[in-house]
Amino acid sequence: MGKNESQVKFWGKLFSEIESNPIKQQLISFNESIKETIEKRNSFTHRFPQNENDFRTTLTTTEGRNLLQCNMRKRIKNEEFLQNITESSKLLESLINNLKLEFDDIV
User: Fold this and answer.
1) Which superkingdom heads the taxonomic lineage of this protein's source (predicted)?
2) Which of 23, 34, 71, 79 has its CA 20 to 30 A from that of 52?
3) pTM metric for this prediction
């Protein structure tokens, strides 16, 4: 399709440029099915990992007063991360197999 790899995004122009409806629907469905995986990956990569204890402070304003709070936020067990990775890997495997069938039909 002549796209620079760094410019390809699931949530953008790519879907509008895919002509094959079955392929487009499979990609959209896959992207929807891995939303939780995307959130976990983003937290792990870009923010404080969800599987670590998080004792960061928060600053809020209530009734004109600034409040500084320190508490432990919800932590996800490592097993849950592993389970999510396993499930999303199976979804990716299924997507690849289905796309292979679609491309075999085209070629």
Assistant:
1) Bacteria
2) 34
3) 0.58
Q: Domain segments of the chain: what residues?
A: 15-49+76-106
Tell me the pLDDT tens digit for each residue of 37-85: 887 777 766 666 777 777 777 788 889 898 888 777 677 788 888 898 8
Residues sharing a CB contact under 8 Å with residue 90, sequence separation 6 or more, in sequence order: none
- Give the contacts of 63 (CB within 8 A, at least 6 positions apart): none
Amino acid type, 16:
S
User: Interhelix angle for 21-33 vs 78-106, to 10°?
Assistant: 180
| DSSP line for 86-101 | HHHHHHHHHHHHHHHH
CB 84 within 8 A of CB 36: yes
- The residue written with tokens 């895919």 in the block is 18
